Structures are given as structure tokens and as C-alpha cells.
Amino acid sequence: MNSTSITYTIVERRLLQTTNKFTAVKILLFFLLLIWFLGITFPLVSPNFSGKLVITQILNYAYSLVCNQTNSDLLHVNNNHLLVCTRCTGLYFGALIFIILLMVKPFKVNRGLKPFFFFSTPLIVDAIAIRLGIYNYSAAFTFVTGFMFGAITIIYIINTIENSFLIPENKKYGL
User: Fold this and answer.
1) How confident is the model at residue 51 (pLDDT cuts 50, 70, 90)?
2) Domain residue ranges in the chain
3) Which stretches of the chain are DSSP H helices?
4) Strand partners for 85
5) pLDDT digits (tens, 9 = 90+) for 20-38
6) How many other C-beta atoms lie within 10 A of the C-beta of residue 101?
């Protein structure tokens, strides 16, 4: 046996342990969120972003699938703007921050869907109130409501994935 196969076997054994599966999933989600968030901020970190036509078109298209990208709702920094609106920026930032917190100190939500509804209600009320013209758009408030929704959503996603690992294989598929 060579050293590569020994290393692979050790990694494989570790991943078969439930706690290590949780950690691997959290790390994978963290890197996926990090890559997604870095894409959002690409215009801020890349000089002459508008000059890179192909990259501009690809990124704008990718993020237009998940965000309205209304120019008035975009977060502007130094004559550049992020590729998603302020609410979506808050959502992705909240998910990214909370997945880091979940990797450092795991915790679960054991109260059904009440926390999810509690944290998502401000976002829904804000979006409806702005669309109905009840009050004017506030970038700070929409960022906070997005942050709250992103944070609670990633907690529920992680808890759901972890619970699926705890279900025995024969019950998972109805056997």
C-alpha cells in the first residue's frame, strides 16, 4: 500500500463518522457560499470590471437568476455596485457569517418553524410595504432583514442535512 491510498483510507474512515460528515458538509457549504459571495463583490475587487465584457455578462446573468438587480436597490461603493440588491447581499452575508458561527459553535433550532417565521416575517413585511409604497426603500433596513433571513435559513439547512445523516439507511428509503 502506498502513502496515497493510506491517506485516502484514513480520510474515508473519518468521513464515515457522523460528526465528521457534519463538519464536511459545513465546510463545503461555507466554500460554496464564499465563492458565491466573492462573485457578488467582484466589481468592487476587480479594477475595470466593466471592461471585462464576457465576465460581466456571465456574472450579471448568473446573479439575475436570483435577484431583481434593480439599479436603485443595488449597494453602491466607490462608483461601483454589487451584483445583487441590498436585501440579497444581506441574505448571503447572513448565511456566510452564520455558517462560520455554526462551524465554531454548533447549535440547533428545536422549536419547529416558529423561529423561521419570526426571522422571515420582517423581510416579507418590508418587501410588501416598499412595493405598496407604504414607506420608502431603506438600504440599511433591507440589508438587516435579508441578513436575518439568510442566518435563519442556513441554520435550518444545516439542521436538515444533519438530521438526514442521523436517520438510519433503512428508514431513509422506507425499508
Assistant:
1) low
2) 3-172
3) 3-16, 18-40, 42-45, 53-64, 86-104, 114-131, 139-166, 169-172
4) 74
5) 677 888 888 999 999 999 8
6) 14
